[in-house]
């Protein structure tokens, strides 16, 4: 056959039985291990490449990262780069996914001292802690579910014992939500899933069954009763409610396991960048975690640390109590007070221009790839054209074409000219503490954008 559909379990030992593949497409590609790991995908792809060294491997996934190792795309991995990426917020805006809302429950498990195994919480220990608050959490969740008139709810539980307690607690409150676990017979599992999709059952309680590949468009509420340190698992659980359906306005995520506070917005999952601070004495930019400027020794005042942390807490979308805060990141616009330029070096790559914007006590950074080729250079030209109307001869002594990094850094007035154009920047979260600049000069409440702003 020219095209073959198969599960990895059925073919990983049989690569040599087929004619050489030209393309291997893997769904849920986050399951592909890193290059130095062993596994079924590794075995099948390695054997297939012996038959066709030019085999192309393409992966589809909503979570292109793994808790152990980070991004799945790397030059040393089977998947080497991201060729196309669509963000959750963009897909919602374009009508491909439904809107999300979230409420963080007042009832939360005490996870202090809970053991970890395999990079995540030990579910046996979690089950005991979460089991102590089942009745209270279920009662709070049902109150919200009834008030919001939610019809199809998935409850995510820690283990079989915890799942049983949750289902029984729901039954005592006249809410039917049968149990589905890895031990549930396939016939019974299929029956429950079918009845749930048909609206005959209002809810299901599950343990790591409906986290991936389960497509029920009717789901309009997700109840997180199990904590996790895995951003991928968190995304998969919440993602069960993203499917669109006629008459479905949004999906409500109820968090009784600290997942939202642990991982942040679902469209910002990824790395853990360094939070930066700016020295009030010498303007050095440094990691806030150090507490003091490495250049001059200036220490961040305790009052300033308390103020910044209080501001960050206020900006978080999810409070300690149930709220209507969205589970998606929200753009923030800040007034720019100063701009700093520096050369950015990366081994094996041309130098780029690092542009840092100081907005009060916050620092936001972007990189302009003036000396790169292809897409990076195209974006750099657009960046210059937008600010100066041209990319030619914008600095004294500029050579032909787009200016080089060293030419810009020699122009002592370039930051000032850049500041005259840049009144505000609009940023959006790309991780717990990382931001991406998405726009410039949007208006800010109570701020008039004048030349001297």
UniProtKB/TrEMBL annotation:
Pfam families in UniProt: Helicase_C, ResIII
Domain Helicase ATP-binding: 1-82
GO molecular function per UniProt: ATP binding; DNA binding; hydrolase activity
InterPro entries tied to this protein: Helicase/UvrB_N, Helicase_ATP-bd, Helicase_C-like, Helicase_Restrict-Modif_Enz, P-loop_NTPase
CC per GO annotation: cytosol
Chain ranges of the Helicase C-terminal domain: 137-280
Identification of the protein by name: Helicase C-terminal domain-containing protein
Species this chain originates from: marine sediment metagenome
